[in-house]
Amino acid sequence: MSTYDESNGQSHVQGGAAGPTAPAGYNFEQDSRPGSDATADAFGAPMATGAADGAFPVSPATPTKERRGPGWGAMVGMTAAAALLASGGTFAAVRYGADGALSSNGPIPVATGSTTQTVTSQGTIPDWQAVTAAVSNSVVSITVSVGESGAVGSGVIYDSQGHILTNQHVVAGASKIMVTLADGRIYGADIAGTDASTDLAVIKIKDAPSDLTVAQIGDSDSLVTGQGVMAIGNPLGLSSTVTTGIISALDRPVVTTQEDTGDSFGNFDQPQQAPQQGGLGGLLDMDQKPTSQVYTNAIQIDAAINPGNSGGPLFDGSGKVIGITSSIASTGGSGSAGEKAGSIGIGFAIPVKLAQKVADQLISSGSASHAYLGVSIGDGSAEAGGVLRTGAKVGSVEQGSPAANAGLEQGDVITGINNKVTSRAAALTGFVRQYSAGDKVTLTVVRSGKSQQIEVTLAEKTS
């Protein structure tokens, strides 16, 4: 997460990089972030549904201050090109042709049991009817209260003890959390831990029943662009809503803006403007405490997701979770009531490899740690071997940091990490965040017109 100083064009991030300016006419908005009161109807303010910035209004039966979906905070920045390979995604993807569709003739019973069932397909198109029946009981709806306001989101059952994986912005500042299972049973829940820097959280059902259906976790390292995906969630408070689509891109660097308020809902309506690609106008200091931005190399999908889908699972064709839906892109257009549009077919999910790593830490200790490189970076470019490449340009190196120990220098342009492309600063930030302290990574660095490989042992930042 980062803070951006408009007076000097600098942003500061722990393990992060400056996000580029959003394309003209587009706002990238965080799915289901809590905003202000749901009764506001001004452009950019939360609508009657309670979902700020990004949902068509649905007028409630009676005027209330209920926020029916955490508002979508402005997302700024996406790199022009995605990295070539999936990074850090841990949800298994079923490749087309390997596991196709089951015959869907006749009714398909909804699965019950301690874990979801793996769906074996025959052909090239997943049988989403069978997948839905197999996994729907592992998805929950989340309702949170803060004073007189409320909001809704989604989650996925992570283990038999009642831990639910969701987004941090869904439960941030909640004084009361209620979880509704797919069969309609309602339970209270407590926050087990949150991690604002990745927008992930784990809550735990109070007195969890013994018959919870636990989701199966996949391996998103094997995800491929074009494969089918399915999202289940609680958009606009419409529980157990199923949408399908494909993976449009992998390792898409996105930067979402949120307030790390700790005990209250933040205002996520204002975008953070970041510098244009090609310069060092905005530097991210990886040593700064996260304050306002989340950097993710996301799974981009065209399955429709809307406010309320936040925190819900993204499944592959075999019924395994491959991501946690978290944000969408929006045209920022307005209708007759001045509302912004919802899904336009560009949504984003946090890869489950990262989500699983963070969730395990949150369950164990209530907090999560992240790898630390120790540089300030911005978007830049450099030529090596007659080829011009864009990357993360080093503005400064902290003394005694992993970067300094490895020999990184001011002016270096980092164009890759472990054979994955880092065409912008935000991409490097997202990749670094996926690693843990002690991990060794190989950076591709252009210096003085030559490309070289530099090995860095990442560390954990200490205060």
From TrEMBL:
Q: Name one GO biological process term.
A: proteolysis
Hydrolase keyword on record:
yes
Output the superkingdom of the source species: Bacteria
Provide this UniProt record's keywords sorted from A to Z.
Hydrolase, Protease
Which stretches does the entry tag as region Disordered? 1-45, 51-70, 257-284
Query: One GO MF term, please?
Result: serine-type endopeptidase activity
Point to the regions of Polar residues compositional bias: 1-13
Q: Which residues form the PDZ domain?
A: 362-449
The UniProt record lists the keyword DNA damage = no
Mind telling me which InterPro entries this protein's record contains? Chloro_Bact_Ser_Proteases, PDZ, PDZ_sf, Peptidase_S1_PA, Peptidase_S1_PA_chymotrypsin, Peptidase_S1C
Family membership noted in the UniProt record: Belongs to the peptidase S1C family.
UniProt name for this protein: Serine protease
The organism encoding this protein is: Actinomyces gaoshouyii
